[in-house]
UniProtKB/TrEMBL annotation:
Gene3D superfamilies: AhpD-like (1.20.1290.10). One of its GO terms (molecular function) is peroxiredoxin activity. This is 4-carboxymuconolactone decarboxylase. Residues 46-112 form the Carboxymuconolactone decarboxylase-like domain. It comes from Celeribacter baekdonensis. It holds the Pfam family CMD. Coiled coil: none annotated.
C-alpha cells in the first residue's frame, strides 16, 4: 500500500539556525540516537521540539510504569489514532519489553486482548477509555487507583497525552512509516 507524501518535511540540516542545531544535537545524543518522525518535524519550532523531547524522555524512560505497561499504552494510542509510524516504531519495543505478541495482534485487529495480569488489563482499559470516552467513569477510576496506584495513574495519563501529541503530529503531517512498508500494519478502520 502506498502512503501519501509527507505534508511537512523536517527542516534541512544545512539550513538549521543555531537553536535548531542545538536541539537536534541534544536529541540525537540522547537515548533515541537520532532525530526522526515527529521530533524532526518539530524542529521547525525548536523550542517545541526541546520541550516535547523533554516530556517524551520522561514518558519513555523515567516514569513509575514498567516498560511493558508503557509500551502497552503506546500501542493502544497508536492503534486508536491509526498512527502507522508510531505502531511500527513501538511494536518491537513492546515485544522486547515483554508484551505478548498475541496481545499486540489483538490490539492491532481491534479485539480486546487476553491479558496475563490485572496491571496490563488496567492500562489497556484506561488508555482505551481515555481515547474513546475522553474520561474515566467512577468505577474504572476507582479500579485504576486500586490496581495501579495514584503515582502510576498520573504517569499513565501523562504518557497517553504525550503519545496523543506524537500521533496527531504523525497523522496531520502524514509522516510515513520508515523504510519499505508494502502494507499497513494497522487495519484501515483506525479503531
Amino acid at each position: 500500500m502506498s502512503f501519501p507524501p509527507q505534508r511537512l518535511n523536517a527542516p534541512d540540516p544545512a539550513t538549521y539556525n543555531a537553536r535548531q542545531q542545538e536541539i537536534h544535537n541534544e536529541i540525537a545524543s540522547g537515548p533515541r540516537g537520532g532525530v526522526r518522525g515527529p521530533l524532526a518535524v518539530w524542529l521547525h519550532r525548536p523550542d517545541l521540539a526541546a520541550k516535547a523531547q523533554d516530556l517524551g524522555k520522561y514518558c519513555r524512560y523515567d516514569t513509575t510504569l514498567d516498560p511493558v505497561l508503557s509500551e502497552l499504552a503506546i500501542m493502544v494510542t497508536g492503534k486508536v489514532f491509526g498512527s502507522e509510524y508510531e505502531w511500527q516504531i513501538h511494536k518491537g519495543h513492546a515485544l522486547k519489553a515483554g508484551l505478548g505478541a498475541d496481545v499486540i495482534e489483538a490490539i492491532r485487529v481491534g479485539q480486546t486482548p487476553a491479558f496475563p495480569n490485572r496491571e496490563q488489563e488496567m492500562v489497556y482499559k484506561v488508555a482505551l477509555a481515555a481515547h474513546t470516552e475522553r474520561r474515566l467513569g467512577d468505577a474504572l477510576y476507582a479500579e485504576a487507583r486500586e490496581v495501579l496506584g495514584d503515582l502510576r495513574l498520573v504517569d499513565l495519563v501523562g504518557m497517553i497525552g504525550y503519545y496523543t501529541l506524537i500521533s496527531l503530529t504523525i497523522n496531520i503531517f502524514d509522516i510515513p512509516p520508515m523504510g519499505d512498508a508494502p502494507e499497513r500494519d494497522l487495519p484501515d478502520d483506525k479503531a
